[in-house]
Amino acid sequence: MSYQDPFTRRDYQRALDSQSACNPGALALSLSRFQGQIHDAGGSTDLVRQHPIIRLVAYQIAWLTGMTGIGDSKWQHAYQACRDIAAHDTP
């Protein structure tokens, strides 16, 4: 099965919006849903770990729980990728 990104522009915007979230439980539910969408579309576990939506949501959970700081290069790359795709009509 060939992978095709299952996410819409709105999904990328939700990932951006997650950066102001304060409820790690709600973020964890979103993370699970996003991960399932990647797998359902034929994506691998490696793709899940590298996808910008997954990274942004996971980093926000980590930040809320005191495990990392926002602003490192992987976060910046994931944020920029989501922002670029959210700003266009097609991913």
Helical fraction: 55-70%
Report how far the terminal alpha carbons are from each other: 20 Å
What characterizes the major β-sheet?
Answer: none
Structural class by helix and strand composition: mainly alpha
Ranges where pLDDT stays below 50 over 5 or more residues in a row are: none
Query: Counting H and I runs of at least 4 residues, what is the number of helices?
Result: 5
The counted number of beta strands is 0
Give the overall form: globular
Oligomer: single chain
Q: What number of domains?
A: 1
Compute the average pLDDT: 90
Estimated radius of gyration = 12 Å
N-to-C SSE string, H for helix and E for strand:
HHHHH
Task: Describe the protein in words.
The protein is mostly helical. The chain has one domain (about 10-85). It has five helices and no strands. Helix 4 packs across helix 5. It is globular.
